């Protein structure tokens, strides 16, 4: 096949997808970048230079949304990843019964329809006569106002995200564990290494790319967090669960300030880029 | 000792599954009975009454048919595009290939909300608001699907493609008959991901669809939340009904699902 014909064939396969990306991704992306340098002046769109971006630094709510996100990154992502690592390690034992049953049970939350999940959590977490408070009552815990108390709303948000995504990360880690050759475990145990030493010296280094994948996707997911805070608490109470994207949505679609909303979006993109790069740099391949 | 390991696993599984269980409980009781000092923990007998009310309030049958239709059309078109584009990127050399690959990976880092406003304006200028093409077409090209399919095709032996060409097969025939069947597990994973994603899609359909009888299930359910007297039993029934097909698809295809996840994450 000639080179020219080969190129033509390639375009038949990639052309449609690339055309769709150009129209529905590249164009709106550039449009939002342009919009982030514009503002609305009495009904007219005018250039604003870097005004929208400098406004970010004085925006208390944006700052608060970043602090909330940082808290989730520090608390939720490590807890979830460690939980996923532990469960994956247990489920990787070939003598354990019901392994695929557990795997399904843990993974199911990740594929649940979002709105259904948000609705059921709102109902479970109701303050008066909600099921969660009822069950906690058996343990002697006084009723908690999960969704209207700033502290408990954060706890509820973190618990919900953990409920939804632990199984997903666990399955990815489990798949990584299963790709490690059995001989390596055996070699380590012949050397007289204990279970924990084997885990740290043999398994963790091989899992590095998988753990990195989980950490990067969780970090991106946290910075893009929208569904849970929007549907569970609308970012409240007192902005305790406000995330950058809920803030963006309110600015854009409630206050109709598209210019500033675009600037928030691009700030989030920049932060995601930097954090992913840092994680890749420190946790990526060493050689 | 070994049996003891089941204890934490069972606790975890109960936590994972309890919300699903409670959907069933709530869907079979009256709303008044759900929030009492002793909420029901076993199924009741109100299922049919709740279903009837849900049909009256949001037209549940219509809404379900809409969701099935939109999800199927989207899944078929998007998966086909992913497979084609993945194949092109994996097996052909052409100018800009590296660039496209980088762009496709970058799209996964861009929050969808960045595009929301310009896309909304674009749909308005096309006159597509309140149509299904507005729900389906903008997100047909799916970066994750393309990437997964590309990874799947990378290992496909070039000699088999060449052999097909020598036998006089056309390029599309080679794709459908020789290449695509070899990537069935990954294609299945892409199909499942796209279907589940579109089935539960919320924000974009909410912005696009204005007429009640065009709503999809998530949009219809979300309108019930805002009412002054919320029909929680109906909501839980609707939520469970929305989750059921996803559970079925997942249980049926879970092997492909897992291998698909693995293919996307670990391979170079």
TrEMBL record, chain A:
Alphabetical keyword list: Cell membrane, Membrane, Transmembrane, Transmembrane helix, Transport
Listed transmembrane segments: 12-30, 71-92, 104-125, 155-177, 210-226, 258-278
Annotated GO biological process: transmembrane transport
Membrane association type: Multi-pass membrane protein
Main location: membrane
Domain ABC transmembrane type-1, chain residue ranges per copy: 66-279
SUPFAM superfamilies linked to this entry: MetI-like (SSF161098)
Record bears the keyword Cell division: no
Cellular component terms per the entry's GO annotation: plasma membrane
Localization terms from the record: Cell membrane
Family, similarity comment: Belongs to the binding-protein-dependent transport system permease family.
Entries under PANTHER family matching the protein: ABC TRANSPORTER PERMEASE PROTEIN (PTHR30193), INNER MEMBRANE ABC TRANSPORTER PERMEASE PROTEIN YCJO (PTHR30193:SF37)
Protein name per its UniProtKB record: Lactose ABC transporter permease
Organism: Actinorhabdospora filicis
TrEMBL record, chain B:
Keyword Transmembrane among UniProt keywords: yes
Membrane-crossing residue ranges in chain numbering: 7-27, 72-90, 99-120, 132-149, 187-207, 232-253
Record bears the keyword ATP-binding: yes
GO molecular function list: ATP binding
Subcellular location as annotated: Cell membrane
GO cellular component: plasma membrane
A Pfam family that the UniProt record links to this protein: BPD_transp_1
GO-annotated biological processes: transmembrane transport
SUPFAM superfamilies membership: MetI-like
Membrane topology designation: Multi-pass membrane protein
UniProt keyword list: ATP-binding, Cell membrane, Membrane, Nucleotide-binding, Transmembrane, Transmembrane helix, Transport
InterPro entries the record matches: MetI-like (IPR000515), MetI-like_sf (IPR035906)
Domain ABC transmembrane type-1: 64-253
Family: Belongs to the binding-protein-dependent transport system permease family.
Protein name: Sugar ABC transporter ATP-binding protein
Record organism: Actinorhabdospora filicis
């Amino acid at each position: 096949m000639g080179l020219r014909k080969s190129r033509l064939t390639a375009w038949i396969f990639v052309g449609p997808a690339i055309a769709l990306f150009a129209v529905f991704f590249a164009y709106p992306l550039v449009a939002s970048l342009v919009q982030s340098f514009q503002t609305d002046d009495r009904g007219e769109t005018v250039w604003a230079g870097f005004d929208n971006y400098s406004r970010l630094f004085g925006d208390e709510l944006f700052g608060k949304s970043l602090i909330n996100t940082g808290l989730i990154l520090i608390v939720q992502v490590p807890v979830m990843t460690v939980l996923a690592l532990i469960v994956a390690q247990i489920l990787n034992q070939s003598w354990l019964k019901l392994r695929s049953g557990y795997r399904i049970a843990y993974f199911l939350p990740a594929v649940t329809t979002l709105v259904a999940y948000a609705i059921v959590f709102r109902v479970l977490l109701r303050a008066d006569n909600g099921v969660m408070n009822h069950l906690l009552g058996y343990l002697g815990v006084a009723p908690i106002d999960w969704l209207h108390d700033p502290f408990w709303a954060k706890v509820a948000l973190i618990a919900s995200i953990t409920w939804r995504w632990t199984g997903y990360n666990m399955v990815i880690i489990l798949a990584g564990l299963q790709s490690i050759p059995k001989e390596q475990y055996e070699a380590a145990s012949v050397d007289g290494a204990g279970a924990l030493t084997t885990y740290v010296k043999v398994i963790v280094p091989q899992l590095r790319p998988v753990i990195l994948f989980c950490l990067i996707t969780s970090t991106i997911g946290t910075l893009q967090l929208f569904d849970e805070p929007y549907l569970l608490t609308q970012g409240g109470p007192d902005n305790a669960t406000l995330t950058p994207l809920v803030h963006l949505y309110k600015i854009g679609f409630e206050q109709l300030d598209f210019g500033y909303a675009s600037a928030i979006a691009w700030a989030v993109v920049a932060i995601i880029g930097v954090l992913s790069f840092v994680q890749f740099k420190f946790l990526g391949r060493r050689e | 000792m070994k049996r003891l390991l089941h204890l934490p696993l069972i606790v975890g599984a109960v936590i994972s599954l309890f919300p699903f269980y409670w959907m069933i409980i709530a869907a079979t009781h009256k709303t008044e009975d759900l929030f009492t000092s002793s909420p029901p923990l076993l199924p009741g007998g109100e299922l049919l009454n709740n279903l009837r009310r849900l049909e009256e309030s949001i037209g549940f049958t219509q809404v379900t048919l809409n969701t099935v239709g939109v999800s199927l059309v989207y899944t078929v078109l998007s998966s086909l595009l992913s497979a084609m584009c993945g194949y092109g990127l994996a097996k052909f050399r052409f100018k800009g290939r590296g660039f496209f690959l980088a762009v496709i990976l970058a799209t996964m880092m861009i929050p969808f909300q960045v595009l929301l406003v310009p896309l909304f304006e674009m749909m308005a200028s096309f006159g597509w608001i309140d149509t299904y093409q507005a729900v389906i077409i903008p997100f047909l090209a799916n970066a994750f699907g393309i990437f997964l399919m590309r990874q799947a095709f990378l290992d496909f032996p070039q000699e088999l493609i060449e052999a097909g060409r020598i036998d006089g097969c056309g390029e599309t025939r080679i794709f459908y008959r020789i290449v695509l069947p070899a990537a069935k597990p990954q294609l299945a994973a892409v199909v499942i991901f796209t279907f589940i994603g579109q089935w539960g899609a919320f924000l974009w359909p909410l912005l696009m669809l204005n007429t009640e009888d065009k709503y999809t299930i998530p949009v219809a359910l979300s309108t019930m939340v805002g009412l002054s007297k919320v029909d929680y039993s109906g909501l839980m029934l609707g939520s469970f009904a929305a989750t059921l097909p996803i559970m079925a698809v997942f249980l049926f295809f879970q092997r492909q699902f897992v291998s698909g996840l693995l293919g996307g994450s670990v391979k170079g």
